Amino acid sequence: MIKKAPLPNLSPDPGSDILRSISAGLASMSAGQQRIAAMILENPHWAMQANVEDLALRAGVSAPTIVRFARTVGCDGLRDLKLRLAAALAVGAPYLHRSVTPGDSTAEVVRNIVGSITSVLSDWQHQLIPADIEQAAEIMHRARRVDCFGTGATSNFLAMDMQARLFRLGITTNAFSDAHLQLVAAATQTEEDVLFAISYVGRMPTLVEAVAVGKEHGATVIALTQTNTPLAAIADIVLSIDVPHDATMRVGTDAYVVQLLMIEILMVIIGLKRGPTMINSLREIHDILLTRGVDSDDPSLLHWGWNQVLHSGKDEASEF
Fold first, then answer.
1. Domain count of the fold of the chain
2. For residues 146 and 224, is the Cβ–Cβ distance under 8 A?
3. Does residue 320 fall inside a structural domain?
4. For every one of its 320 residues, what pLDDT tens digit does the chain have, with 9 covering 90 and above?
5. Neighbours of 312 (CB within 10 A)
6. Of 190, 241, 285, 299, which sits with the fewest C-beta atoms within 10 Å of its C-beta?
7. 145 phi and psi angles, rounded to 5 deg
């Protein structure tokens, strides 16, 4: 009978940073242990608070495997592992990024941050409900008007981006960030309209109030927000963006990226619903921007633009 080599103790002393020790020992771990390690490194705050059953379920292993992993990384058990996680989180670098630990090299920072967002996107994809996305796309496709509301720097940008995309699809659309204009727009909506509210935090009182007004006037409310928020509670359709909270930003990179992806998904589905005519229209828009846009890669267009300006100046001068 072949004896297996003992697993290495990955934590050299009780005072070491457990997150760094886990990260350093990834290469020597089994596939199951690597899944547990990745889960902890991706969201140590959650791992510190979760029970053994939740940890096992998310990592796809058994509960005893979680306990064995804790001992493998030099802890007395799961409770000791959580205490060391708490100590590691208290001393700092997760306030820059939850996947970065003090002393990480540039290569490690790149690997950890890219790996973190990849893991977040995978988890988020599995949470999505295609039927809700389909319903939202169908209603927007048939709407008389779609008003995009976003309050705050990120939400406002996303609302404007969505308005620009819907406009290209031939949908009558607006984007509002001002609280008063949101109320005015909401008050003019009807049962034929859609109010698309964007807010990761989902608690801005003025936005929630404007959404309530739109709903009172019969509009269908679609919310791009977290599941358990006041905005989600009032929406007819919730497109959830439940991702780990950022250490420093109210709307971190994870939230920003998944919101952009949801908008992209919606626009593609709506475009397909609008059929070949819309696709031909988009092709024409692309060709016009390519051949007539002054920011094209074709340098001759830049000269063409300057010639237009110069000729225009000469024509104005000749009038005097």
1. 2
2. no
3. no
4. 333 333 444 443 444 578 878 887 887 899 999 999 989 988 887 888 889 999 999 999 999 999 999 999 989 899 889 888 877 766 555 556 766 766 678 888 888 788 878 888 888 898 899 999 999 999 999 999 999 999 988 999 999 999 999 999 999 999 999 999 999 999 999 999 999 999 999 999 999 999 999 999 999 999 999 998 999 999 999 999 988 777 667 788 888 999 999 999 999 999 999 999 988 998 998 888 888 776 666 666 555 655 666 666 555 555 55
5. 10
6. 299
7. -155, 140
Tokens of 219: 């509009």
Would you put residue 92 in left (φ > 0), alpha (ψ -120 to 50) or beta?
left
Q: Is 218 exposed, middle or buried (0-12, 13-18, 19+ CB in 10 A)?
A: exposed
Is the Cβ–Cβ distance between 223 and 231 less than 8 Å? Answer: yes
- Domain holding 162, by residue range, is 130-276
Neighbours of 201 (CB within 10 A): 18
Using CB atoms within 10 Å of the CB of residue 23, give its burial: 0 to 12 exposed, 13 to 18 middle, 19+ buried: buried
Last-in-domain residue among 54, 74, 96: 96
Q: Are residues 258 and 216 in the same domain?
A: yes
In a domain, 304, yes or no: no
